Amino acid sequence: MKRSTATVAAARLPWFLAVAVMAMAGASCAPRAPLVLGFATSLSGPNYMLGVEGRNAAELFVKEANASGGIAGRQLMLLVRDFGSDDRNVVPVTRELVDAGAVVILGYFTSTSAVTALSLRADERVPLVSPSATSSELSGLDDGFYRTIMSSEYDVPYLVAHMKERKRERVLFLATATNRSYVETYAAPLRTLVNVVLDERFDSIDDIDFAAIEDVRERIGYDAILVVASSIDTGTLAQELTIRGLDAPLYVSGWAGNDELLVYGGSSVDGAVFVHQTDIDHPGVVALAGRYQSVFKQKPGFSAIQTWDALSYIASAITLAEGDESRFAKAIGGIRSFDGLAGRIEIDEYGDATRTVYYKRVSGSSIVVDGVAE
Prior knowledge:
Blueprint: H1 5-11, H2 15-29, E1 35-41, H3 48-67, E2 76-82, H4 90-99, E3 104-107, H5 111-117, E4 128-130, E5 145-147, H6 155-165, E6 170-176, H7 180-193, E7 195-202, H8 210-219, E8 224-228, H9 231-243, E9 250-252, H10 259-265, E10 273-276, H11 283-296, H12 302-320, H13 328-334, E11 337-340, E12 343-347, E13 353-354, E14 358-363, E15 366-372
């Protein structure tokens, strides 16, 4: 049997040098350890839906990437952690993933969880990437936080334009008291653009003062309702307003724009309008939807689609860093555009995205794309 060059060389050296040569030769041939991707989100509690869909997409992405040989020669390992819809768990979970060797942490699907994560200094953590945290509070900061979705500060002008085209000037604003940063991204510009006849915040549907809503309806009236809450709360609230005869043309936040809205809202959300940054009819999204559905037995919601885009962004950074984790942070900070499922997504020097916005509407038992918001 022919001996390797390293074995022959080692045979001619003193034993202690021979051991060193053989060790180095073995190390050079050994495959590199997988790159660790952290995933931090709520998989339980009231905000679970975004996290579960995102985790499903992440698992599928990693499985497909590894099956094709990895990225830049590195296999990927996904470490998933749940902070249970409780922002007090965000910092401990983030630290746990950093200590476990994550090169990047993906998640923070609600804006308040992202803001909480940023209470950790940049030198205490790795780059953080969110597919769905859209508060304007996160914009324009050089903080090692990146998002592949535009701020929701752009949502309100589009929604108001839709309202005004239909002569809807008096708006009832109902919003969750949680996820404050996200809610204010809607509330602040709304107050400057239309007549907000009532701004009601709630921890749960049972907290809402429906008598105050009825009083406003009788005294002033309203010709549109904007609800900013999770899909479950939005659908449940829409049902309650309909039962009480307090309904009006409905607008909802992008947060609520998934099939859970239809399940919990039923016919009361029919016709509801919102804006999103995903085109469910784009061929790239349709292709993913087929693979996702074959594995998870359900269609991917916007959270899954946007998580896939975020992972494509991370994959671009791994490629740019040539699989070297020590170069990853610099690589991701230098990316200015990448290919998402539905086209090119631009990223500015602060890690904020620019992408196409679409009007969507609930039509019967489905959500349809009405066109590009311009």
